[in-house]
Amino acid sequence: MPPPQEGKRAAVASGGDIIGTLQDDLLKHILSFLPAQQAVRTCVLARRWRHLWKTATGLRITGGHELELTPVHDLREFVNHLLLLRAGVPIDTCEFRFDVVSDDNVPRVSLWIRHVILCQVRLLRLNVSRESQDCRLGLYFYVDSLPLASRHLTRLELIDAGLNDSFLDFAGCPALKELIIINGFCVHVSKISSRSLKRLAIIDSSFNQHIRTRICVPSLVSLRLEDNWDRTPVLESMPLLMDAFVRFIKESVDRCFYSDSWDCHNEHCQGCYDLQGVSSDECVILKGLSEAENLTLIDEHDMFIFRRDLTWCRTFSKLKVLILNEYWCVPTDFHALACILEHSPVLEILTLHFFSKGPEHKVEIKGCCNAVESSAAISEHLKTVEVKCNSVDAEVLKILKFLGTLNICKLTANTLHAFSISAVFLDMWG
Questions:
Q1: In sequence order, what are the beta bridge partners of 193?
Q2: Global confidence as pTM
Q3: Average pLDDT by consecutive 10-residue portion of the chain (430 residues)?
Q4: Which residues 6+ apart lie within 8 Å of 37 measured at CB?
Q5: DSSP letters of 90-127?
């Protein structure tokens, strides 16, 4: 029998079956990228393929349609037989993506999830939606109330899921490193906890309006809280944190219409007073972020959380890169910006976005500290200050003038579109 490499070359030269020359382990890996129905159909290709699908390293139970979610009742019999015939063979990755219309199918899907957990799945993705006329259900599939227990699970992705405390207590998952929640319903979640988690992303999800969810992940190195609803969660200590991105753009109850702070003395204010279980002098989010090396803080909805937390602002002792938006640059004293700069002693790069969406800005201005006359109010390590905006208007000129008081001088002013910067502007910052 010729060596494998010679067999492959002979197959290519003769126009024969190239895939057939591959080893079984590689074929099982390839099958894991197919929807489960297509993977099973390969059993008719040849005698060798008859049982390969049973030991494929991954399962994609998706219905076979990428753009539309298949109703689970169309998959029920197939999935029951699929899991039975696999006989508990270990699974590396598993994705559930379909639609649950009837309440009768919810327990069945929960059993499928528990079954793949027992099959030592490492990456589990749940993208299970609900179609219902009952507005109380919305579009969420409610996971069961039993805690997860797996020594093998390393990554968990939850999309359109209704969650609870038990499911998000990962004490029984000591190998879990990554958790992603997208459009999650966290109204009934008081705590998310894991001692092993390294990366956490919660995006476009809703929390409770009357209590704050606590996030306890002491081993975290990367955090992303983006475009979530209702009460901002409390971040507990994260001493290993390196990168954090926090953005508020959605409607939130952490907002006061009577005051710029968090204590308007109006007992009818939902934002300031309709809150349970949190001390009025507890730092909500900045304390947990204080160990980050790279930090992005964006508020596009004028919430009071950042301003409130500045009252107890801790030192960002490791922070080297900081990105802020116009929320932090409110005249006339620029208190929020000045405060966070004062508490960032090793900061090297500061970027300010003004009414622009990241790379879509039209004007980019770069500056640096005057090495001779550096200000005590900012880090002596600060190398670069970038101001990105759509145009240099009165508000931008005010922030440039404020930066000038910190002895930050202009280096370059680049425009991504036709734009003229007047001599008056150049003199004002530099």
A1: 169, 216
A2: 0.85
A3: 51 58 89 92 90 93 72 90 93 93 88 96 93 55 90 97 94 97 94 98 93 95 95 94 92 67 60 59 88 94 81 89 90 83 93 71 75 65 86 82 76 45 42
A4: 63, 64, 78
A5: --SEEEEEEEE-SGGGHHHHHHHHHHHHHTT-SEEEEE
